[in-house]
Amino acid sequence: MIIEAILSTLGADRNTHFAPVGVIFLDDMKNPGEAEELRFKLYEGSHTYENLRAHGEGAISLTGNVLYFVDAGLRKSCETHPSKSVKPHRLAHASAFWEFSVSSFDASQNPALITTKVLRYEQLCGFSGLCRAHGAVLEAAVAASRRGFLPKRAIEAPWPYWREIVEKTGGVREREAFDILSKKLTGEGFSLEGEDLI
To answer: Is 47 within 8 Å of 12 (Cβ atoms)?
Structure first.
């Protein structure tokens, strides 16, 4: 099972940097708090890849707020809270988080497989339910974060489908998040339709 989360790492500028990441959990795990290690994949050349190679520690935050995925994917700053076991800060309003150190970095494949040792886990609040618009915004945010190496068509083609889901099932927050992404990509020359959702 893969859970989408926000990964924070320490950059060369000594500031915390955020990126969306899919965290790999064992299929038989009943409670994420039981995890002693976390795994995820990163593409070579990304800021997060370089940060973890250099510093070997970070934090993973769970959140239901899709605006954080948009901010992380577009390299905007996110509101932070100091971590206790690692230098990179975690997301301020996370529902749960893990602090970790890297135990192995398999760069023989791209994306590289990173295995980490959990240093600290804390659940701050419960799960608030599922909304299809969350998934659509999340897919759009991840695609936007990969715009430096994905073919433009791979981002442009599914955009109307994601937009329809957001319009039908999302609230103000989801529409705002999708609108931010649409305007950013349109400004960079992507061909998208109907950017204004609010």
So the answer is: no
| Closest by CA position to 123, among listed 59, 36, 61 | 61
Kindly report, residue by residue over 113-149, the tens digit of the pLDDT.
999 999 999 998 876 555 788 899 999 999 999 998 8
The answer, as to whether pTM is greater than 0.85, is no
What is the CB neighbour count within 10 angstroms for residue 35? 17
Q: What is the CA radius of gyration of the chain?
A: 17
Q: What is the CATH number of domain 2-123?
A: 2.30.110.10
> What are the backbone dihedrals phi and psi of residue 117, each rounded to the nearest 5 degrees, phi first?
-100, 125
d(CA 106, CA 113): 5
Domain ranges of the chain: 2-123, 132-187
Q: What is the pLDDT of residues 20-79, one digit of tens each?
A: 898 887 756 667 778 899 999 999 989 999 999 999 999 999 988 888 888 887 877 788
Contact 3, 21 (CB under 8 A): no
Whether the upstream peptide bond of residue 82 has omega within 30° of 0, thus cis, is: no
Judge whether 167 and 175 are in contact, CB under 8 Å.
Answer: yes
> How many CA atoms, within 13 angstroms, populate the side-chain half-sphere of residue 7?
31
CB count within 10 Å of CB 112 equals 19
